[in-house]
Specification:
With 121 residues, the chain is mainly α. The chain contains 7 helices and no strands.
Length: 121
């Protein structure tokens, strides 16, 4: 059975992340949450999503266990930040070539992850 990573494809996944960070860099609702170097942040996101979607364990190999919630605790992430993150990711996901059912499932998984990242009401 193909993983979600294989169904999306590395090139499409990486392109989606680059598009996402281009949107985030212009989005005043959340761009302040990211360090100034979007290239490095995008690189780590590519590693994480590759692993999260069933591909090679790139993130863990370099950074250890993802512990994403703990790694994001220094940033205040509430409903507005979650919504902005998901809006930008949804826009980016619609700009790359992938089957609708794959895109829908990906966005469902990312919605659950974004909800898990919230740490303020």
């Amino acid at each position: 059975m193909e993983t979600l990573y294989e169904r999306i494809g590395q090139q499409n996944l990486y392109q989606m992340i680059d598009i996402f960070y281009r949107y985030v860099s212009q989005d005043d609702r959340i761009n302040h949450l990211f360090p100034g170097d979007f290239v490095e942040t995008a690189r780590k996101q590519k590693q994480f999503l590759t692993q999260f979607l069933g591909g090679p364990t790139l993130y863990s190999d370099e950074h250890g266990h993802p512990m994403m919630r703990a790694r994001h605790m220094n940033f205040q992430i509430g409903e507005n930040e979650k919504k902005a993150w998901l809006e930008n990711m949804t826009r980016a996901a619609h700009e790359v070539d992938m089957e609708n059912e794959v895109r829908d499932y990906l966005l469902q998984r990312l919605t659950l992850t974004a909800e898990h990242m919230k740490n303020v009401d």
